[in-house]
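Protocol step 4 of 6.
Sequence for Glutaredoxin domain-containing protein (Cherax quadricarinatus) entered exactly as in the expression construct, tag removed. Do not edit the line below.
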Amino acid sequence: MLEVRGRVLVYTIVSCPHCLAAKKTLKDLGVPFIDVPVERFPAVRSWLQEKTGKTSVPQIFFNETYVGGNDNLQKIVKDEEEWGKLIADIQTNEAKEDALIIPHPSEATDRNDAEMKFVCESDPAALTVEELRASGILRDHRNSFFSSTKNVCSGQEFITWLMKEKNIIF
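Step 5 output, structure tokens:
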């Protein structure tokens, strides 16, 4: 684990694939972080939206430096210079105590808040997958007498669908 004086905060919601990916990246790189589940802390939700102007998660901070979401984190990790600056910041500088909100566990709420406005980062391919499912070309394929694979299509069917529905030319 990386030795740090500062801190990394990851504001998340439970079961968000982008939040999980961001936390996995940080964990794999040995960067310690604090996970703040915003659905359990209403005050944090409103503060975070005001601070970042975003209603998607994850929202990641290295000390007071706002990184953004998982997509931004993945880009920065690949940029050695930018990544080095963030790591150097948390290794050499302590975080300002009042710059970011780290709620006390006693402030957590277990109720399902109907006003929760934070959503997982959108996945550009998710809409295409939903359209593909709705198109009706997916079907079950029998592999053998005793096994089958659900919701599949041939490569040719998929390419034809992409060309027709998405106007993609190969």
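Step 6, annotate. The beta strands are 8-12, 34-37, 56-57, 59-62, 65-68, 119-120, 139-142, 148-152.
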